[in-house]
Recover the amino acids of this structure.
């Protein structure tokens, strides 16, 4: 990465747009954890985290249950 070139800003949605995207992710994933198949305690997880400039876009989000989400963050 060129140290003189500024980082691009990440795409961050306002609260209402993110809420719609969140539901879109759940619908796409059939309201099931994409790791274990659970249908309870669902979270929407950023594949590329926000602190690493992960965007709020459909392709960067996946449905995980609470337990799988916690495991993913411990990796």
């Amino acid at each position: 990465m060129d140290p003189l070139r500024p980082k691009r800003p990440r795409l961050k949605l306002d609260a209402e747009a993110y809420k719609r995207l969140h539901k879109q992710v759940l619908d796409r994933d059939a309201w099931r954890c994409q790791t274990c198949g659970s249908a309870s305690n669902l979270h929407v997880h950023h594949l590329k985290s926000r602190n690493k400039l992960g965007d709020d876009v459909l392709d960067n989000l996946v449905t995980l249950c609470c337990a799988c989400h916690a495991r993913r963050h411990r990796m």
Summary: The radius of gyration is 14 Å. The chain has one domain: 15-74. Helices lie at 15-28, 66-74.
